[in-house]
Write a structure and sequence with these properties.
DinB family protein, globular, Four Helix Bundle (Hemerythrin (Met), subunit A), 171 residues
């Protein structure tokens, strides 16, 4: 497993660089929380009866990246990777066949696709798919802000799970 380098965005960056910088920071934070652990440790659930694990969080974030930067932003017909109509939380339901190598590679591929897709939009440009809640499009700024929030929330979970596994703490 490689060592993830993480740095905060410049304090005087423009808006886009700031949003992209904080999103990258949080992506890198989740990767750091998973470093140095075995597959068994990455599968360790937070607290029974919860099935929340670091491996599940990485799979979930692959789905989230795919959902916002492919299905919502571009209206791409991108099927779910881990969940289904029958199992809406399939990203968290691990089997013996699920591995860190596959989940990490899938997550990184979705991140690369997200970067590429977002590069073609200005912050005020609207998504091609509409909100299922109000029928309105999202601008890229909203998507970036939501993704930062999503990662920040789950990184808090990851921090607690990692501390339970081996006592490692940190931001």
């Amino acid at each position: 497993m490689t060592t993830t380098q993480r740095s905060e965005p410049a304090q005087n960056a423009d808006e886009r660089a700031m949003l992209e910088g904080w999103l990258e920071y949080h992506r890198q934070t989740l990767a750091q929380k998973c470093e140095g652990l075995t597959d068994a440790q990455l599968r360790t659930a937070s607290v029974p009866p919860s099935e929340l694990s670091l491996l599940g969080l990485v799979r979930h974030m692959a789905e989230v990246e795919r959902g916002w930067f492919r299905r919502t932003l571009l209206a791409e017909d991108a099927d779910p990777i881990y969940y289904s109509e029958e199992d809406h939380d399939g990203d968290f339901h691990l089997t013996d066949k699920d591995t860190w190598e596959e989940a990490y590679a899938t997550w990184q591929a979705e991140i690369e696709t997200a970067r590429r897709n977002a590069a073609g939009f200005a912050l005020d440009d609207l998504s091609r798919n509409l909100s299922r809640h109000n029928g309105e499009p999202f601008n890229l700024r909203w998507i970036y802000t939501h993704m930062i929030e999503e990662y920040a929330r789950h990184n808090g979970h990851a921090d607690l799970i990692r501390e339970r596994i081996d006592g490692a703490t940190g931001d």
